[in-house]
Amino acid sequence: MTTSDAIVVPELYVGYPKVAFGGYIAGMLAERSGAQTVRVDFRGPVPVEVPVRIAETAGGGVELGEAERPLASARPAELLFDVPAAPSWDDAVAAAERFRAAPPPGVVDCFGCGLRAADRGLRVHPSRVPGLDLVASAFVPSRTFADPDGLLPNRLVWGALDCPGNWAGHFLGTQRPGAVTATLTGTILRPVAAGEPHIAYAWLLSESGRKHMPAVAIATAEGELCAVSEALWIDPRPAP
């Protein structure tokens, strides 16, 4: 049995212009699924400020868009990789400052990693940590986004699990500007408190041609894991 209604993604939550931020979409679908670990597959851009059908399907699945051609779908999954220790808070702060001082090619006005004010975005700005095969960013989610308990809503935690993978591919591998998230699999292990210091960091699991597989973790400033994910990013096709 399938039940459906519609959602409208506010324009605040964009990734590329006029396209809903993939991490936010994944988080919404994960919340609807209710599973501990969820895989989200993206099949097309989700528009902002337009009603889009969302439906719960059998087995904890969720799909967004028309049933014949969904834009994204989610299902319960597993994560099977080791998570390295988080870099230090000082290293994460320094990495974010390097990103902001000299924004790398491919930066857009993204809710996750765009150069926005703290009340308009997550400000996850990763760059490479010297001596480690990691990118990292200090991450202090604004209290503007807090729920009544002072926590960052899970869909926004998923947002913070998205962009670091892109920058891992850029700084640690061969990923090109304009790459898009094809899949995002994540799990939240403990709440993320708004206004508190956290570390978002990422590393590469593998690469093959246009395909790049990063993993991402969010930890407290002391290194306690809050959430982890893996993703598949795909480069744009070369110009003819």
Description:
The chain is α+β, with helices and mostly antiparallel strands. It contains four helices and eleven strands. β10 (211-220) and β11 (225-234) form a beta hairpin. The radius of gyration is 17 Å and the shape is globular. The termini are far apart.
Quick structural gist:
The chain is α+β, with helices and mostly antiparallel strands.
Q: What is the overall pLDDT average?
A: 95
Distance between the ends: 45 Å
Shape: globular
- SS-based class: alpha+beta
Helix content: 10-25%
**N-to-C series of helices and strands:** EHEEEEHEEHHEEEE
Q: Tell me the radius of gyration.
A: 17 Å
Strand arrangement, major sheet: 1-3-4-5-2-8-11-10-9-7-6
Report the sheet-strand fraction: 25-35%
How many individual β-strands? 11
Given the structure, what is the number of helices? 4
Unreliable stretches, pLDDT < 50, 5 or more residues? none
Question: Biggest β-sheet, characterized?
Answer: 11 strands, antiparallel
What key attributes describe this structure?
alpha+beta; 11 strands; 4 helices
List the helices and strands and how they pair.
Layout: E1 3-7, H1 22-33, E2 37-42, E3 52-57, E4 61-66, E5 69-76, H2 89-101, E6 127-128, E7 135-139, H3 154-160, H4 163-172, E8 180-188, E9 198-208, E10 211-220, E11 225-234
Antiparallel strand pairs: 1-3, 2-5, 2-8, 3-4, 4-5, 6-7, 7-9, 8-11, 9-10, 10-11
Helix pairs in contact: 1-3
InterPro entries: HotDog_dom_sf (IPR029069)
Organism: Streptomyces shaanxiensis
Protein name: Thioesterase family protein
